[in-house]
Amino acid sequence: MKSAEMTENDKKLAELLQKAGLSRNVAKTLAYMHNREEVISVEIEKNTGLRQPEVSIAMKYLREKGWIVKRDIKKEGKGRPVHGYKLAKPFPKILEEIEKELRGKIKDIENIIKNLQNLS
User: Fold this and answer.
1) Is 94 exposed, middle or buried (0-12, 13-18, 19+ CB in 10 A)?
2) Which residue range(s) make up the domain with 21?
3) Does residue 1 register a pLDDT over 60?
4) How many other C-beta atoms can be found within 10 angstroms of the C-beta atom of residue 56?
C-alpha cells in the first residue's frame, strides 16, 4: 500500500467537514480516505498527524455510520493486527448524508427562532 501525505484539498475538506459538525479526528480521517482506494490505520496516523487512539475512535464512528468497511490483512509475526479500510459508498453519497443532517439542523434552528418570535 502506497502512503501519501494529505494534500491541500484533503486539508480544506477536513476543515469543512469539521465545520459541518464532524469531530476533528473523523473529519481528518474521512478527508484522507476520500480519494484513496484502501488505507491502513498506521498510514492515516502518519499522514494526518492523529494518534492511534484518535484514528481508532474515528474508524469506529465511520463504521457505525456505514461509511467505511474494514478488512483484516494477514500479517507476519506478532504485534497489532493490521486492518485495511476503504469507503463503503461513493464519497458524494456520504456528502449527501452530511448535507441532509445539516439541513435538518437548519430546520430545527428555524423552528426555534419561529417559536421564540411567537413568544415575544
Assistant:
1) buried
2) 8-89
3) no
4) 15
